[in-house]
Amino acid sequence: MYSNCVSYPPVSSTASPCLLDLVPTRICAGFPSPAEDLGAERIDLSKVLITHPQATFLQRVSGHSMRDAGIFDNDILVIDRAIKPRHKMIVVAVVDGEFTVKQLYQRAGRVKLQAANPTYPDIVPKEGQTIEIWGVVTSCIKQFPSA
Length: 147
Prior knowledge:
The protein contains 1 helix and 9 strands. It is mainly β. A 7-stranded antiparallel β-sheet has the order 1-4-5-9-6-7-8, with no helix packed on it. The longest helix is centred in the first third of the chain and has 5 residues, at 45-49.
């Protein structure tokens, strides 16, 4: 059983700009900083999150196996299929026809998909089994309750 499997295919990202205001000061996650003038510039989230628009897809996560990598149930992943997957990258793979998100382990001729939660086992290809690396995860979009 692979916890981050989803039953729907990824959704293609849009090339349309998504312009939002960016406040030029950073927000302190520790002690608050003195207030500064709040000016804003417009940023395009598509340009920030997407390098290869024609090869980028969005997919919502289901499950908890990537918790320690900061990927939680219901997060939205930005997946770039133009990036060559490498060791330690977080990837979306197709295992037995189901999508899963895991960290790619690729050393000394061994390949496996590692969960970022110790309660989930690694996925090691069995004899005759094919694991396809579908794309590389480049971002994770989180939504917090607003009401």
